Amino acid sequence: MKKYDLIIVGGGAAGMFAAFAVKEKNPSAKILLIEQNEKLGKKIYITGKGRCNVTNACDISEYFDNIKTNPEFLYSSLYTFTNEDTMNFFQKQNVPLKIERGNRVFPKSDKSSDIIKGLARSINNADIHLNEKVEKIDKFNGYFNVSTNKNKYESPKLIIATGGLSYPATGSTGDGYNFAKAFGHKIMELKPSLCPIILDDNNLSMVTGLTVKNAEITVYINKKKEISYFGDFLFTHRGISGPIVLTLTDFINDYPDKAIELYCNFKPAVDIKELEERLLKDIDKNPKKELKSILKNYFPESLADYLLASAKINPKLKLHEITKDLRKNILNLMTSYKFSYKNIAPISQAIITKGGVSTLEINPSTMESKIVDGLYFCGEIIDVNGLTGGYNLQIAFSTGYLAGKSVFE
Ligand SMILES: Cc1cc2nc3c(=O)[nH]c(=O)nc-3n(C[C@H](O)[C@H](O)[C@H](O)COP(=O)(O)OP(=O)(O)OC[C@H]3O[C@@H](n4cnc5c(N)ncnc54)[C@H](O)[C@@H]3O)c2cc1C
Fold it and tell me: Which of 72, 191, 259, 281 has the most C-beta neighbours closer than 10 Å?
């Protein structure tokens, strides 16, 4: 049995940051970091569409509005290791950063691999075992016994940083939940968040790949208007995705058994009366033209075709043939188009796992378990989750840092 001062399970954003924090505070500690993949930070590669939105540069106090589950649990960690600390960290690791729209921070190179290299450079203090899967963890006489598919190890301290359940090919196999459960921890229900929406819609091929800018999607739960989201979204081959859709899934996944309806206003910036007058003018000016041809003034052609097909309106109709009712119908398509909502995509396709180890059983000032001495958690495995914009990686860094900093205090 090999002995260490600390074993970290999981070499993702949180696990690597925990190792870095130990080095900063306790450089002589003997650390083992165990990662089941062939490389560190496999999930980071796919973040931000391969560019890695590594944090958000907003004022740290604004983070708590963008954290949807248990934001108060993160006060200590986010103030101990802030977004500014993250930016300084990467600059020190020779990874220059840039700030884009919405204060989203990316590596200047637009390569997530540079973020991983920076992280990996910072943890030369640890023994790193790749291709090794932790299978079982017990605690006897004050020591954690960690069994992997290759070996057995022992340490008085243990950090579990095994991530969530989304994108399992990146190593998010959910093992950490079982380790936590075996130690008596409660796991709050695991649900997908920030994920695409599946539509029951045979016309999607007409718009697949199309990005719609500056739209507004309104969510109705059991016929009651609940909330609206303004911004961009994207049609996929199975439904819709993109910024506002991802964000609204964090809201609707709290209503699994309710009737959900989604309405899209493609022209939220224009008053509906103004839009109607514009449409009337277009119709009066061009009585012999086809309906399809004037809709090009309002939408990309493929979207106009799709909307007319969805409403079963003949695109070749001459404008002088348009009745008042039909005009109302067209206006409705523009401002209150009902998506044929089916469901939200499964957790395997979500950006983040909602739920996880209950925050009531973790000390927020240290990340130590309140049930088992010497056991710490960090990152996505904990029941916290943020919106898109770099908040989730910052949660992983901040909780990882606090766990690593606290282990030997
Ligand atoms: C498509 C996509 C895009 C995203 N984009 C962004 C973005 O741009 N910005 C942002 O802030 N967030 C983004 N996220 C979310 C972000 O990637 C996660 O919040 C973050 O990676 C969580 O870090 P973690 O260390 O907790 O978990 P992970 O990064 O999942 O790391 C956990 C590690 O533990 C290892 N592990 C698990 N079980 C075992 C075991 N039994 N033995 C050994 N090792 C094990 C896994 O292999 C894995 O490497 C994105 C997520 C996805 C899926």
Answer: 191
What is the pTM assigned to this prediction?
0.94
Dist. CA 103 → ligand 1 center (Å): 22
C-alpha dihedral sign at 364, 185, 377, 368? positive
Distance 384 CA to ligand 1 centre (A): 14
**Other Cβ atoms within 10 Å of 113 Cβ, number:** 14
CB of residue 367 inside a 6 A radius of ligand 1: no
Q: How many helices (H) and strands (E) does the chain have?
A: 12, 23
- CB half-sphere exposure, 357, CA atoms < 13 A: 35
| 122-166 per-position pLDDT tens digit | 998 899 999 999 999 999 999 999 999 999 999 999 999 999 999
Check if 34 has its Cβ closer than 6 Å to any atom of ligand 1: yes
Q: Which atom of ligand 1 is nearest to the CA of 394?
A: 11
Pairing of strands 67-69, 55-56: unpaired
Across 127-160, b (16+ Cβ under 10 Å) vs e yields ebbeebbbeebebeeebbbbebeeeebebbbbbb
Ligand 1 nearest-atom number relative to CA 135? 41
